[in-house]
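2 proteins. here.
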Amino acid sequence: MKIITIIGARPQFIKAAVVSREIMTRENEISEIIVHTGQHFDSNMSDIFFSELDIPRPLFHLGIGGGTHGQNTGRMIEAIEQVLMKEKPSIVLVYGDTDSTLAATIASVKLHIPIAHVEAGLRSFNRKMPEEINRVLTDHASDLLFTPTETAAKNLALEGIAGKKVKQAGDVMYDAALYYGSKVEQLSSLLTQLGIHSKKYMLLTLHRAENADNKERLDAIIGGLEHYPNDIVWPLHPRTKKMLDVFGIRLSSKIKLIEPVGYLDMIMLEKHAELIATDSGGVQKEAYFHQVPCITMRDETEWKELVHCGANTVTGANTRQIIDALDLFAGIDQSVFSLPLYGDGHAGKKIVDHLIKFHSR
């Protein structure tokens, strides 16, 4: 059985690493070709991940990135189609909700190649988000849908997607957090390099267009977070760096700007943070995996179970709500992190089991 895995953005590399490691243990049953669309093309945001994650480098690198959503998606469809016609896979495996995911889905369905979607069923219920459109369309075109949570499976059922093609495997990101989290203390010296101490800083990530491209929202977010009493470590996404300069936004001395970091250094920063503030979907979950409270600077989240259990709060770009969240999490009860929300840490194995079973039916 031959599968083609199509990825293009940092979170997808991490998710794919979990499944790829499992595939490599079953080479007599299944083989994998990895295709990198190039959606994240900065070496600090892409290439380093393959060496750190210990997975094969992509056989195909399409080099498509830097354009608009429409430009990227269209060019990706064309390039992916050529790969699929050449390699003739049994199934195409896609992850998450990026333009790479949608392009792979469209190219595959037109060629009548089955699609398996890892992280299916997530919904923000905000159709203005490109990611929401990507994930909805991919779910409705997929032949196998691997949901990370019960909530995701229920979302699919409400849209008429249910039955044997929906498999609740758990979250591959949880597998990754367990696997790499046990190794990171020996592999990363970033805290020492930055001169920061465990549980004495906030980790900030901010990159979504609705925040990074909006001066009013950026000002409001930074204004709220600067009430945090200790250092704020901010690995600065290229998009956000550009807009801070364009808007002329000045930052207080407590904010430590650093270059984007690799996955292992990111885990180190997450594990040792006192608090995490983000507009990323993946970082919200990783905060939970590492038992760190999280402030989400978006108007909604796909990971509603994190809010329900009290580990995460959604503030949008509201300065007052951000300040209130800082106070709320100052005395958080650590028992909120005890719920098994994302499976048992064996999602990768379950996914590969289902792929093989699907092919042999």
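next one coming up
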Amino acid sequence: MRLAGKTALVTGSTKGIGLAIARAFAREGARVVVTSRNASDCAAVAKALSGAVPIAADLARAEEARRLAREAARALGGGVDVLVNNAGQPRVAASEELAEADYRYTLDLNLNAYFVLAQELGRGMLARGSGSIINVTSVNGTLAFPRRLAYCVSKAGANMLTKVLAIEWASSGVRVNAIAPGYIATPFVAELAAKGVLDLGALARRTPIGRLGTPEEIGEAAVFLASDAASFVTGEILTVDGGWSAYGFV
């Protein structure tokens, strides 16, 4: 029960990595707010997790992110101990054809929502003198992939957001870290493979460990960063990619 007594908000927590993090937090004793745009999905996941609270919100809209922060803090009894910024979307398009509206939407969801929620909930953490923020970024925050302009920019920005907040808030007891996953076997990745967009065999062969990661492995990394075991860890970008980034050969 490494998170016993803690409260947490995990965004994008009805599927994939976010769901795995929410499950891991609940297993370790945290009371969790689960959220996505779909209210029925939120309710179904919350029902399966002991004591979880469902709150639907469209985090591409700043006012919705602020509402989520307020309602989560109220539902959890006045404060959120752990914020996991995970909600996001990829955007695949040739850069010369990428619509400005799509570029802006990706940054609003993948980056601006992270800032808004960190700021809104960070104020309470600073006042209490404790808290942990975990931003789920990507290896694409440091590695450029073609046709991923908006996504790469948003994840690079989230990495820097992590570091700046970490050094500003460390002396007040608030730790800010990021998890940068590589290719993870999520339902979305499986969907892309079914459409022929991704070759899972090639991705596994390119990964030194020889397979894709699992959402549960990201969940374990998040539990560590949220727990007291990581009490001296802040400003860190924890890469969980099976060695993908370390292997320089394409």
